[in-house]
Amino acid sequence: MDKLVIEGGFPLYGEISISGAKNAALPLMAATLLSSGTHTLHNVPDLRDTRTMNKLLESFGVMRKESDNGTLRLNADNIKNLEASYDLVKTMRASVLVLGPLLARFKKARVSLPGGCAIGARPINFHLQALKQMGATLTLTDGYVEAEVTDRLIGTTVYFDIPSVTGTENILMAASLAKGTTVIKNAAREPEIENLIQMLKSMGAKIEGVGTDKLTIHGVDQLQAAENTIIPDRIEAGTYLIAVGATGGNITLNNCNPSHLPSLLDKLRVAGLEIEEGDNYIKAASNGSIRNIDIKTLPYPGFPTDLQAQIMALMTLTNGLSVIHETIFENRFMHVAELVRMGADIKVDGRSAIVKGRGELNGTRVMATDLRASASLVVAALAAKGVTHISRIYHLERGYDNLAAKLTNLGAKIQQMKE
Ligand code: EPU
Fold first, then answer.
1. What is the pLDDT along the chain (419 residues), one digit of tens a residue?
2. Which of these is catalytic: 117, 138, 154, 323?
3. What spacing in Å lies between the alpha carbon of 306 and ligand 1's midpoint?
4. Is 383 left (phi over 0), alpha (psi -120 to 50) or beta?
5. Three-state SS for 119?
6. Are residues 199 and 44 in contact, defined by beta-carbon separation less than 8 angstroms?
7. Of 69, 111, 3, nearest in space to 395 by CA
8. What is residue 88's three-state secondary structure?
9. Distance (Å, rounded) from C-alpha 24 to C-alpha 193?
10. CB neighbours (10 Å) of residue 2?
11. Distance between Cα 388 and ligand 1 center (Å)
């Protein structure tokens, strides 16, 4: 297993390019199951999770052609298997995104339940309840959801108690091929959902309400293959912006969309960063002196839970008190104990973390249990005094394309080596 060794204290300077968004690539790849013909997807990031999705699609019989520049061609003409196995689903919860498309097009699917997760229970009951309302018969056998529909899924009105991201995506895909009209109320509004809707529309789907929490989908009999581009990864961009706050310096992120990061950019400005937003770039400068701010994670356009761990690392470097409230997941503070090992003063009280900034962190050996927790340790290590060894970096490889190379380009002292 590899680890990252980071010598902290070097400001970040220079330009890097942001990759395609993991959380957009995964649903768009799953959506290729909805039709025959060859789909073309551009700007697909090279990540452990996109490779897992490729393996999963391959296990159904999807043919794939990849090129070095992030273009992926997928063809689901000859589907021979409708089962998503536990071995693949357990390594990536987003595998559940194949349930809606398989059921809608092939009337049948068998998908392993994902099981527990390091950041919370993360059930999929909203996905299942909505498919049931659309006429699917669902049974739970041996840890698998077996879904079946006699003719076609039937359009209906679905209300989500919480605006679930993958729940909205699964039902959008299923409803596109259903008979009649489906309305999703309290739908998630993340930019990744807009990207999926754009793809479904290019395939011939009829969807109204894009960008709102009420989506209306008029089902069609058939969809066609199309060409689409994955949006830039707002969480990757956000992680580098937070990193320059931690180290000081001046960076430019190219190929990104600042309008997808409204809450973070505002918060970072209050924390003292200078930020310039262009059409497809963000420039950020910091003298390394950061003001304490409070954060509450919320569904989009609120502050993303996927940047909570990273902003907490930044707050440990202030000289004030910061309250970070996590409202999306019940157990997303696994990075706290590791940041404390680096000298941070953080107390967790239920869903709130109280960070008493001490102005500095110290390098040591740390490891994390999930993707964004690992990213927060990278931010912390870049700013810490001395050397930090971060183990279990396979978590980072799930969601950050070329992290070490990009940080090296910005002047960080970072090396990937065997444990
Ligand atoms: N929830 C339920 N039942 C459901 C679905 C969700 O109770 O059937 C709850 C969850 O337990 C959670 C809340 O609703 O408390 C929101 O969860 P959501 O369904 O929106 O999360 P997700 O779709 O499983 C996606 C991202 C996550 C990101 C969350 C929140 C993908 C592939 N994953 O997960 O990304 O944190 O939305 O924005 O899009 C990451 O990239 O590191 C990551 C975890």
1. 899 999 999 999 999 999 999 999 999 999 999 999 999 999 999 999 999 999 999 999 999 999 889 999 999 999 999 999 999 999 999 999 999 999 999 999 999 988 666 766 678 999 999 999 999 999 999 999 999 999 999 999 999 999 999 999 999 999 999 999 999 999 999 999 999 999 999 999 999 999 999 999 999 999 999 999 999 999 999 999 999 999 999 999 999 999 999 999 999 999 999 999 999 999 999 998 999 999 999 999 999 999 999 999 999 999 999 999 999 998 899 999 999 999 999 999 999 999 999 999 999 999 988 999 999 999 999 999 999 999 999 999 999 999 999 999 999 999 999 98
2. 117
3. 10
4. alpha
5. coil
6. no
7. 3
8. helix
9. 7
10. 15
11. 30
Amino acid at 99: L
Structure tokens at 250: 């001046």
Clarify whether 256 is annotated catalytic. no
Which atom of ligand 1 is found nearest the CA of 399?
A: 41
Query: In this structure, what token pair is assigned to residue 337?
Result: 């104990």
**Residues 6 or more apart from 116 whose CB is under 8 A from it?**
none
Closest CA to 252 of 268, 237, 267: 237
- Reported residue count of the chain is 419
What would the two tokens of residue 174 be?
A: 């299923």
Contact (Cβ atoms closer than 8 angstroms) between residue 97 and residue 170: yes
